[in-house]
Fold:
Amino acid sequence: MQGGQGGQGGEGQPAVACEGVVIRYGETLAVDRLTLTGSPGTVVALLGPNGAGKTSTVEALEGYRRVTAGSARVLGLDPIADHAALVPHIGVMLQKGGVYPMLGPAQVLHLFARYYDDAADPDALLDLVGLSDVRRTPWRRLSGGEQQRLALALALVGKPSVLFLDEPTAGVDPEGRIVVRDIIAAQRDQGICVILTTHELAEAERLADHVVIIDHGRVLAEGSPAELASGTADGSIRFSTRPAIDTAALAGVVGAGTVVTEERPGSYRLLPPAGSSSPAVVAALAGWLAERDLSLGDLRTGQSLEEAYLAITGARPEPVPAASEDGPGASGASGRRGSRGSRGSRGSRGSRGSRGSRRRHR
Structure:
């Protein structure tokens, strides 16, 4: 199988493009006229609650889900009609991999490297993802984070031009997360388009150049993390100090119309009057706390991507799932998609196709 970066797309052409994509499962509308693009050298994060249509969209781009209407293109190719031509140029990392449980990372990577005429060096990939010390440890004895890093290495072994990453840092320890982030950043810097789906909004904020928020199969908002945060910002200032302070007294010092709320013990949100100067409000806050010998911690103006996401979707924070779910028939689906993942992360076309055709919709 011919791998190698660069793919099939023409110069200036998006690496990934969906135009008015509709995906139905019987009477269920999973994706509703969705349009998005991903350029070479960018990380695009798809965010949304369970059942939003993220997985259906990604499956269509990978060539494992036919669109009902609209068009999906990757590197200028139709993922279904041109699947054989496209597969060598994409890498897929999923949460759960169907890696042979008795094989170690070195054996697995060397095996998958043989599928490609121009594969990455398996031993170099082991070093890159920090698995050299466990190179002979059977997959079933690896920690969850080590299994995730092996899945990432498998997605990279064919030198892809487009990477599809599903919850790449799920179950990964802090040191491993840094490794994964650095690898993703390096791929972007090499001109790879990375499509990232995650429920970990802090990770998306760190990694993504462009964020697309999806719900009920539609794009609700898109832009850089900073653009999305500023677009929903209300001027609030968040800070921490001793629990149960006199919020009414603090609001009176800042100015008429100020609202101070203790969101949880010791964590506060201060919403100043419209048109207030942030430096002046922070100075008033700091002075009031100093007069009472109270410490000021975790001071933050503006808002995070998570806060913007919740404002846009009108949702409550979701726990990060053990296996992502997306769409009808989610129960038990992650195992099917995960099984495709190990082979689909750059395995033989026959293996990918047979696995993919049996996957259930999430």
Notes: DSSP finds 13 helices and 13 strands in the chain.
